[in-house]
Design goal:
single chain; mainly alpha; Arc Repressor Mutant, subunit A; three-stranded antiparallel β-sheet; 6 helices; 3 strands; globular
């Protein structure tokens, strides 16, 4: 595997072993392939993008179907500007609506509309089937549990 020169002896970062590089590159490929395949399936089976779907999932995960925009950005791991542009596009299509916060007047909420609920209701079955086909069906119950533990551990540095 590629091992850059040590830059005249100043390089102190240990490089990945061949096995570590193989695993890392496989992980990167898996992420690319999953993202691309799920996006293609979403486009083929619905009028939603994966970004639309991600927003609608967040809104359907809460009882009243609305969240603060800042919380939505945090949950999605997006910059506020990206969320704002995404919500404008979705609002134009009637999938979401914005509300001012009556309690403090500082923040805004976004809520799912009936059209948004209908859209995610139509898109979700195909998405779930594809997730099963690409991931879940390749692992037995023990492997899936182990995979979940590994993913949770790898997410720890990102949990604030």
């Amino acid at each position: 595997m590629c091992q850059p020169m040590a830059y005249d002896g100043f390089m102190t970062t240990p490089w990945l072993s061949d096995e570590q590089q193989r695993i890392w590159r496989s992980w990167l490929r898996l992420n690319r392939e999953l993202s691309a395949t799920l996006a293609r399936e979403m486009s083929a089976s619905s009028d939603l993008s994966m970004a639309d779907f991600g927003v609608l999932v967040q809104l359907t995960d809460v009882a009243d179907g609305r969240v603060r925009i800042s919380e939505l950005a945090d949950n999605l791991g997006w910059e506020r500007s990206r969320v704002s542009h995404q919500l404008k596009r979705m609002q134009t299509r009637g999938l979401v609506e914005r509300f001012e916060c009556a309690e403090d007047g500082r923040g805004s909420f976004v809520g799912i509309t009936s059209a948004g609920r209908e859209a995610i209701g139509e898109a979700a079955p195909g998405h779930v089937a594809e997730v099963r086909r690409l991931v879940v069906d390749h692992l037995d119950a023990d492997e899936l549990r182990d995979f979940g533990r590994l993913v949770d551990r790898l997410l720890e540095p990102f949990n604030g």
